[in-house]
Specification:
The protein is of the alpha+beta class. It has two helices and seven strands; from the N terminus they run E-E-E-H-E-E-E-E-H. Strand 6 and strand 7 form a beta hairpin. InterPro entries: FlK (IPR025540), FlK-like_dom (IPR054485), HotDog_dom_sf (IPR029069).
């Protein structure tokens, strides 16, 4: 693992809200705005942009935690800008804070955690256990 970043460095990811991002469950559509789940996935991706440049070819990142505070709606056709800020690198743990905005409006904020592991170790950890 290499660390070509400083604490406070930022990565930006932009996501266009589509109907695929709406809040839906098994009982149908909840509301026609970007779901917390979809925001969380975009936030994890924004933090992963750091991991992609930090991991070696024999390593991979895996999510360890996510906190998200959904503050306001994002509507179909709006562009959400997710800014991830590197807040901590401890060993192989990478932590980012993030804000998701549509223009000046705060849609969500929170924190993501990822760990960078050797692919071989990760394969063993994620392998199904035979009972």
């Amino acid at each position: 693992m290499k660390v070509p970043f400083q604490i406070g460095d930022a990565k930006v990811y932009q996501k266009l809200v589509t109907a695929a991002d709406f809040a839906r469950f098994e009982d149908g559509l909840v509301h026609a705005v970007c779901s917390t789940f979809s925001l969380a996935q975009a936030a994890e991706w924004a933090g992963r942009l750091f991991v992609l440049e930090m991991k070696e070819s024999d390593e991979e990142g895996i999510g360890t935690f996510l906190t998200i505070n959904h503050k306001s709606p994002a509507f179909e056709g709006e562009a959400i800008t997710i800014k991830a800020v590197l807040s901590e690198v401890t060993g192989n743990n990478v932590v980012c804070s993030f804000e998701a905005r549509v223009g000046d409006r705060l849609v969500a904020d929170g924190e993501t955690g990822q760990k960078i592991l050797k692919k071989e170790k990760l394969a063993k950890v994620l392998a199904p256990k035979i009972a």
